[in-house]
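Attaching the record inline, Q. Sequence:
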Amino acid sequence: MIDTEYATINIFNLIMHDERELEQAKEKYHQVQKDLKFYQQQLYAADMSDDLSPMQLQYEYLQYNKRTENLSNQEEFLISQMEEFKNLIDAKSVAVSSLCGALLQIAKQGISIVHKNLISCPDGKNIGSEVLKNVIWQGRNQSMHYEDGKFQTPVTNCFQKLEASFGNEFSLSLHSGENFAQKIVIKLFGWNDYQVYKQDMISLLG
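Structure, as predicted:
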């Protein structure tokens, strides 16, 4: 594990950096979404009174057009902002998932080098009705092959147990084409920094 410590620490730093940026992008996206809803309500609620003289009506009509134009411009701006934040969220999600996949790969290699196979490895902590070593192994395999969606039986069995324990966000059928590495590393393992990861790996590798 010492051999991979430098690389692993750097991966954790990158994950935490991108995780923070991802959360900030999500917060901004939701705020812009609220602003857009407000301006759209203002735009569609714009109206003029019927009890106006012709001169007043002309003036109100000009004001009405100016107001709706401003609201429409604001609506367009907010929609473009939402698109920018959505693209950023998608990019950061892919980056974090890829980094988490790399972390699972390092952990899986550690098991392979020390124990030669999965059976010889201690179980580690419980992850729902699964155990740490198997979720690392099968999670790594899912992360490697998520794009083609063709998984061997040990992978599908593992994720069926995870789905039963933690809900359908771990369903391979409902989320086909999704890399689960981020959910596994951050949500299930709680690997938020290198020390947590290190303690878990010591329990597996000694």
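The chain has a mean pLDDT of 86. The longest strand covers residues 126-127.

More tomorrow.
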